[in-house]
Amino acid sequence: MADTSVRKKREISDDQKEALSVGRDQSRIVRRYLEAISESKPRPGRKRTEESIRSQLASIDARLADANPLNRLHFIQLKMDLELELSQLQTKMDLAPLERAFIEVAAEYSSRKGVSKHAWREVGVPAEVLKRAGISDSSSGYRKAGHSEDID
Fold first, then answer.
1. Residue 99 dihedral angles phi and psi, to the nearest 5°
2. With b meaning 16 or more CB within 10 Å and e meaning fewer, what string describes 77-102?
3. What is the pTM of this model?
4. Domain ranges of the chain
5. Alpha carbon distance 83, 57 (integer Å)
6. Predicted confidence pLDDT, tens digits, the chain (152 residues)
């Protein structure tokens, strides 16, 4: 015989809803900070200056007039890339507010998710930021936090 009973919808308590909300907020703060430090990381090679980019743009403008259609296409794309790079150089991201928010939630997030200091360092979080967040070498790792399964 098939079970024809109707399953009751599981009720979530207000405490559970609050815990889920806090977890989502912490994850959002951590993700934004990690994305910001990843984007602001210096790239390999010689650092480009506004002056060198402007010089390249002037050179491209001079060469565009005499360029054949195929070269013109590539010069226009290069010019667009350089203009984007120049605008990014001029608008530096202010990490301070993201860092402050990260410091407020990092220790609890680490404990809840089992993230060790070493893991934070591997993704680029500065040691000083971790220290201010209260994350030490003895902070728990994934398995210490009670997680026995592998991460999918």
1. -65, -45
2. eeeeebeeebeeeeeeeeeeebbebb
3. 0.61
4. 14-40+94-133, 50-90
5. 8
6. 566 667 778 888 988 999 899 999 999 999 999 999 988 776 777 778 899 999 999 999 999 999 999 999 999 999 999 999 888 777 777 789 999 999 999 999 999 999 999 999 999 999 999 999 999 876 555 555 555 554 54
